[in-house]
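Section 3.1: Structural characterization of target chains.
Under the original work plan, the team committed to producing a structural model for every single-chain target entering the pipeline before any wet-lab resources were allocated. The record below documents one such target. The sequence was received from the expression subgroup and is listed exactly as submitted; it comprises 255 residues.
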Amino acid sequence: MPEGLEAAIYADAASELVGHVVTSIEVDDRCTDSNELSILVGQRVQSVRRHGKRVALVLDGDQLELFFGMTGRVIVNDVAPIEALEYGPSSERPEWDRLKLTTDVGSLRVNDPRRWARFTLNPDWSTLGVDFISDAHQLDDVLERHRRRTAAVKSVLLDQRVIAGLGNMLVDEVLFMAGIDPCRTFASLSADERRQLSSHISAVVTRLGELGGSHTGVLSPEVRASLPACPIDGAPLSRVKVSGRTTIFCSLHQR
């Protein structure tokens, strides 16, 4: 699933439409009612918003949220800023287009083979937590407020009401670099461990953003599939389920 870093890339690509008027909109009715979105025709794209994994086009009178599901990709003016996702194909087919928004100068398409993409007018983002691209002090304040939670550390970090934008691969990478067992209860973390966790979230997000996305970390899709020796200490990597999500970690240095 596109995580916050991928959403940021999509939002940047969508900004090419800013200042231009929507001339037509086509949508797969299995994803969203096409009649509902027809009110966007004639409106000008004023800006693009992003918070966590959510992206929205801000128009004259309405906002259109783009939800990508597991395999949705944004294609702007026939250019895909991300050529492939971990759980999706590298190719695209016209029949996979779930949304095509055309302006006076170009178009934006959401191409999704699984039909999980959704498009919502005037979304409510009030329940989302702090954005994942925040400084370590902001993140530390958020984690401090949740210090008594007894859920697994990974479960808390995946909760979009806590930090919006962290997904499965980013969280595994953060915990791997921080040396924290994803199965530990969040309440078991010391204040120092929470501060280290905040610092590692900022560092990992910055590093993977520069490298091109959440799939570019030490725990890459290839490593997740093959489970080689841990590059830090040589111990075998482990694969378990945490809150229903596949989790890769090292039982030696992640404690």
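The chain has seven helices and twelve strands.
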